[in-house]
Design brief:
10 helices, single chain, alpha/beta, about 300 residues, UDP-N-acetylmuramoyl-L-alanine:D-glutamate ligase, four-stranded mixed sheet
Length: about 300
C-alpha cells in the first residue's frame, strides 16, 4: 500500500467545452466531478496500475464530506483529518477543439498548529505498516513550512520512503530534509533553485545537498531521474495530448507502483513516463486507461543520461 497525503484536497469540477473564448458565454458538453488534489490524482492512477493507495489529508464542511464520498466510491482506504471551515473547489475548463485547460483554484480552509499536529499523528499512525508515502500539492492556508518539514523528518526517521511533489516555499523546505525524494517539473525546480540549470544538473545538485532521489518531468521532452543507482532520461513516443492536467500525478503513481513492486529505478522511471503520457490522452487528473498505459509503456525509451 502507498499512503497518498493531500494536505489541501478539493472538489475538482471539470467543464468540457468545444473552445474557450474570454468574455463569452459557454455551455459545457460534459461535467466531471471528482475528489481532487494532487495526492488524490496519484491515488486514482495507483489503483488503475494495480496498487492500493491510502488517501489522507484535511477535509472540512459540506464540500469535505462530498470529497470523502467521491473518494469512497472510487474504492480504496482513506483516513481523513477533519477541521473547521469548508474544503475548496477547483474549476477546470477543458476545451476539446483548441487551447490548453485553464485551472481556477480556491485557497482552501485555514489550519492551525493543533490541526497540523492531529494530521501528523494520523499520518504517522497510518504509515506505520507502509513503506512508501507521497505528500503532494499545496499546503493549506495557515500551514507553516516548518511543520511540513517536521512531518517529512518524522516519516524518514521512521524509515519510510518519502516522495514529495509540491512547489514554492513548501518545496524549498522539503529540499532541506536529508533523505527525502522529490518529483517536480522543470519550472518548479527552477523556481526553487532561483536558477535554470539543465534538468540533470539540477538533479545532481539536489542529490549533492542530501536529497535521495530526484525525478524531473519535462513535458513532451520526457523526464530525467537521478538516484544512487545512476541517472537516466526517459522519453515517450509522440502523441496528440488531450489534457496534461494530472500527468505529473500519474507519473508519480507509475514511479511509486514500480518501486513498491521492487523494480529497479530505471524501469520504474519508464513506467512513470508511460503513466504520465497515458494520462494526457484523456481528460481528468489521474484518469488513465490501462490500455493506453500499456501502449505507451511499449513505446517508451530509456537511456543513461548525464547531459540532458
Amino acid at each position: 500500500m502507498i499512503l497518498c497525503l493531500t494536505p489541501n484536497p478539493a472538489i475538482d469540477r471539470t467543464l468540457i467545452i468545444p473552445r474557450f473564448v474570454s468574455g463569452a458565454t459557454h455551455r459545457a458538453t460534459e461535467v466531471i466531478v471528482a475528489a481532487g488534489g494532487k495526492g488524490l490524482n496519484v491515488a486514482r492512477a495507483i489503483r488503475t496500475l494495480g496498487g492500493e493507495p491510502v488517501c489522507m489529508g484535511f477535509l472540512a464542511g459540506h464540500t469535505g464530506h462530498w470529497v470523502a464520498e467521491l473518494a469512497q466510491r472510487e474504492g480504496g482506504r482513506a483516513a481523513w483529518t477533519w477541521i473547521e471551515g469548508e474544503t475548496r473547489t477547483c474549476v477546470i475548463v477543458a476545451p476539446t477543439e483548441a487551447g490548453e485547460p485553464s485551472v481556477i483554484q480556491e485557497l482552501g480552509p485555514s489550519v492551525q498548529k493543533p490541526d497540523w499536529d492531529r494530521l501528523t499523528t494520523d499520518v504517522l499512525r497510518e504509515a506505520a505498516a507502509l513503506q512508501y508515502v507521497c505528500l503532494c500539492g499545496s499546503l493549506p492556508p495557515g500551514a507553516a513550512v516548518e511543520w511540513f518539514a517536521a512531518l517529512l523528518e518524522a516519516l524518514i526517521y521512521n524509515h519510510k520512503q518519502v516522495w514529495v511533489d509540491t512547489s514554492g516555499a513548501a518545496l524549498r523546505a522539503a529540499l532541506t530534509v536529508p533523505g527525502v525524494n522529490v518529483k517536480v517539473n522543470a519550472q518548479e525546480i527552477e523556481a526553487a533553485l532561483l536558477a535554470k540549470p539543465a534538468p540533470i544538473e539540477a538533479a545532481q545538485l539536489l542529490r549533492s545537498r542530501g536529497v535521495d532521489s530526484v525525478a524531473i518531468t519535462l513535458g513532451r521532452q520526457g523526464a530525467v531521474m537521478a538516484t544512487a543507482e545512476g541517472e537516466w532520461h526517459v522519453q515517450s513516443s509522440a502523441m496528440k495530448a488531450v489534457s496534461a492536467v494530472g500527468s505529473g500525478d500519474s507519473f508519480l503513481a507509475g514511479l511509486l507502483t514500480g518501486l513498491e513492486a521492487g523494480m529497479p529505478a530505471p524501469e520504474a522511471l519508464r513506467r512513470a513516463a508511460a503513466a504520465g503520457a497515458a494520462n494526457a490522452l484523456s481528460i481528468g487528473g489521474g484518469r488513465i486507461a490501462l490500455g493506453d498505459f500499456m501502449q505507451m509503456l511499449a513505446q517508451t525509451s530509456l537511456q543513461p543520461d548525464r547531459h540532458t
